[in-house]
Amino acid sequence: MAAVGVAVLVAGCGGADEESAAAPSYYLSLGDSLTVGVQPDESGDPEETANGYTDVLYRTLYDSDSTLRHERMGCGGEDTTTFVEGGLPHCDERYEQGSQLEEAEAFLAEHGGQVDLVTLTIGGNNFTRCVEGVRDPDGEPDGPEDIGIDEECVADGLERVETEVPVIAERLRAAAGPDTQIIGMTYYNPFLALLLLDDEPAEEAAEAAEEAAGEAAEESAAPGDGAETETTGGDELAERSVDILTELNESLTATYQAAGVEVADVGAAFESTNGEVPADSDTGMPTNLQNVCDYTWMCNLDRGPDIHTNEAGAKRIAAVFAEQVD
Fold it and tell me: What is the mean pLDDT of residues 25-31?
């Protein structure tokens, strides 16, 4: 009987261990179209894919932990306002709680202690609508004379980043608790590709990008009264986009750090302010512009120009996050 008792005890302990070992842990990805791998299809129309940076990151993490599950909660088009409040019909239908933030809070509450990682990509869509005319209604790229930056839109986008991202970061941190790692990202600058619109020689394009990078640290070109003005011409547009991206990324970084959220510096990984042409360059393009062409669809005129990353770009972003994961 003693032997039988020992056998039963051992079997019972083994079953508990197996059940514990099988309990899943979760990776929760939140954010906009980059989160759900949006890329242009053969007709240039955006579609979700299974090759976003979050998918690449998950596959990498799964190799080390086969119990990990990916809760993919992003939605294309989300900006900071809709992330908090809802309001995009095609996104709202995904969230029983009413908004992506509320859905995330509910998931974190339901799976307390099981969520190892949360990634967040939000803020870029506060500005994508501020650049007008990158593609005409028929899907064809416009020329530089047809493209402009709506400065009133930019001012509004920055204000919402500065007021709403702190709310997002603080609520996620509170819902996740102190033991869950949360990583938010900065953005790359797809609009550097506008340097190509003027058909400038490579040397002139490089000088324009380098000058833009230097001026970005000195001052913002946004009008103080919020009035709408449009910047035109490929090099001027690219310069202004550097200013905007610098303000956005500085705001995101400061907010995340203040809330105890780590930062995946994608802007730095894409070298968005590096306007120098490498000595071994085959194209004569500055590093920042070359990276945009290599990692996004902005320089592809068959499916683009499109601001989203291609598969190479998704892998590059995933690598930046992977460096931060505990």
Answer: 98
